[in-house]
Amino acid sequence: MDQHQKQPYDATLKALFNHQIEEMLPYILPGAQFLGELNSEVLKPQPPLRTDKLYQIFYRGEIHILHIEVETKGKSSMPYRMLSYYGILLEQYRKPIISVIIYLFPAPIVESPLEVMSGRELQLMYRYKSICLWFQDAKLYLDQQAICMYPLLPTMQGANADLLIQAIDGLKTRYAGTELSHRLLWLRTLLGRAKTISEDDKKVVEKEIDMFDELLDEDPYLQEHIEQRAQRAAKEAELQTLQTLLLELISSSFPNLSAFAQSKVTQIKKPEVLRVLAVQLYKVSNEEEARTILKVTAA
Q1: Cβ atoms within 10 A of the Cβ of 247, count?
Q2: How many DSSP H helices and E strands does the chain contain?
């Protein structure tokens, strides 16, 4: 998934945690008590790493640091990245670290623990907790009236139109105005990508949410979300147009560079860079100079 595709889920989950982590914590780490949120920027590397969410909690009789990463797909490198965070956070806070990966959608994952061996000698064992939402029982959360988890229900097994409409009714009972519209937005965003619910059921749930269009239209949070998506779409369209025009220019002036230009121009993701490149290529008179400019600009 590229960065543009991932952004709606990142924004959705970060907003969800920002609003209701205290309520969600017992379902993520039973027995933990929320103490406060910490700065998610890990200072050691340059540029700094940034965790998804970092909290101070009271757990097993002492203060711990809870580190949460939310993932939209499985990555074989994830345990190593989590271990990097663990070492930096342990040095920084000198407290036990609880590492949790929340996977939104079905994907291959690497099970805990991560073991590092030297021959037959175990050098390091790193344990982390993986929560795969597609293995969670949506009905269980509904039966427990765990309303803070309702926006996540589309990603869970057993999710269907009837269950999600019950969840929406539960949200309507608990929340109103902006608080309600936020949660409907989170639910709708995850519903769009969910693999655990049929397309027919998705349409039924979408229709139910559409009944709140007026409420959503008046929500400044949602309007900002829509505006950001529109800006990203406009930037993407501008980028594609400039890439196409630049490739046409190169193809007509330097046909032998067409394949090379294709590989280089598509690497450039900033419209302003493409504009400068177009001006430079328009002024050159030979193929070798054009090739050099492409190499340097796309490096």
Answers
A1: 17
A2: 11, 9
